[in-house]
Amino acid sequence: MPTDSIHRAVDAIWRIESPKLIASLTRMVRDIGLAEELAQDALVAALENWPDAGMPDNPAAWLMATAKRRAIDQMRRQQLQQRKHEQLGHDLVAEQEEGHADIADALDDDIGDDLLRLVFTSCHPVLSREARVALTLRVLGGLATDEIARAFLVPEATIAQRIVRAKKTLAAADVPFEVPRGPELAERLAAVLEVIYLVFNEGYSATAGDDWMRPALCEDALRLGRVLQGLMPEQAEVHGLVALMEIQASRSRARIGPNGEPILLLEQNRTLWDRLAIQRGLAALARADKLGGALGPYALQAAIAACHARARVADETDWARIASLYAVLAGVTPSPVVELNRAVAVAMASGPAEGLAIVDALAGESLLQNYHLLPSVRGDFLAKLGRHAEARGEFERAASLTRNERERAMLLSRAAACAADA
Questions:
Q1: What is the pLDDT of residue 216?
Q2: Could you give the count of Cα atoms lying within 13 Å of 231 in the half-sphere of its Cβ?
Q3: What is the mean pLDDT of residues 404-416?
Q4: Which of 173, 180, 284, 333 has its Cα between 20 and 30 A from that of 341?
């Protein structure tokens, strides 16, 4: 295989396997920073060896075995403290010398639990919210530092510092690599759910780059959500989050055109929606509802997604119910973004003028000043009202704010259509 092909294959494998690799290594070395370094060392070794030796039959197992050997070598060189030497070195050296462990089995063993432990460790209260999100997206989501920076509209150096400090903080605090129990588990659940959904969203609608979606991230987030379901079956919001992700993921095949262009919800071919994923989502939503009590923000969003999923064609969508659900969601988690989404539902239920009034009331919201969907939604309402020149300006502004190339092209296309109609 040519070197370029090998490098592309290594990159693809790394995208998929790095979170699992780092999670497994963290369980062994009890240090996220060291685990990531070992994983990176294994990646460099693959780039150096595979072009000549060829791709191994099990690339993930090769990376794991290499990372384990690097752990042993580094431990011997640096003479790690006795506790870690006995805890880690004895087990790893014995495993290597006795040859009784199958590396592939070790990589797959409790991998869901390892990933979940990694999320809870990354969401430890010793870290700030910003640090938790950045660290988890880096080590679990596999996002590059610049991708995280673009997602949160902050300098890349800021994100890099957050990640480095987060690793040092966790190591200094000797945070255990485990899923907490009792009251601490409930306290940290909200942060874990937030991070899982952020990972899913980065896969569902990439904040930057040439691709509209990154399906592997959606799959990682869904796997984590399902593991969390098994761990906390009495938590309605866990089921709500899984329901939301399942229903949204069901549209994946219909969201991208033949040339990679985005296809908006109302224009999608609904026969391409994954009905099994929808059924799983509706079942998870039913479990959340069965647990009783008021629905939380994820379950409410899942209920909104379910309205779309139940409509076989766009014209059958119950927009009045969606608008009412958004009103409830706004009461639970007040947010200008929620209000913007409510405006879309109101416009569909009662006409674009009603939606435009809500959007115009959001014009002064500081959180939306650089949010590309605000002018995009406003442009859509203006176009439907026949105010094409104004709509063109809004679509052009939205295009200037987005960092996703596919989305930018779509918005400029809408601007051009408005220019032709003006």
A1: 74
A2: 24
A3: 92
A4: 284
Amino acid at residue number 336: P
Predicted local confidence at residue 105, as pLDDT: 44
264 assigned to some structural domain: yes
Beta strands in 72-231 (DSSP E): 208-209
Find the domain containing 309 and state its range: 232-317
Alpha-carbon gap, residue 249 to 255, rounded angstroms: 10
List b or e across 198-233, with b for residues whose CB sees 16 or more CB atoms inside 10 angstroms: bbbbbbbbbbbeeebbbeebbebbbbbbbbbbeebe
DSSP three-state, residue 325: helix
**Residue whose structure tokens are 């605000």:** 374
Q: What is the structure's pLDDT at 211? A: 61
* Most confident segment among 95-104, 154-163, 200-209, 391-400: 391-400
Taking the chain, what is the end-to-end CA distance rounded to the nearest angstrom? 54
Residue 387 has phi, psi (to 5 degrees) of -95, 70
Instruction: Output the pTM of the full model.
Output: 0.71
Which residue did the predictor score with more confidence, 143 or 368? 368
Nearest Cα to 243, choosing from 215, 273, 270, 283? 283
Domain count, the chain: 2
Cβ burial, residue 165 (10 Å; 0-12/13-18/19+): middle
Residues forming a β-bridge with 404: 209
Residue 142: half-sphere exposure toward Cβ, Cα within 13 Å? 26
Q: Pick the last residue of a domain from 91, 109, 127.
A: 109
- Residue 49 CA to residue 51 CA, distance in Å, equals 6
In a domain, 352, yes or no: no
The arithmetic mean of pLDDT across residues 239-243, rounded, is 97
Domain membership flag for residue 99: yes
Confidence of residue 80 (pLDDT cuts 50, 70, 90): very low
Per-residue pLDDT tens for 175-185?
888 888 877 87
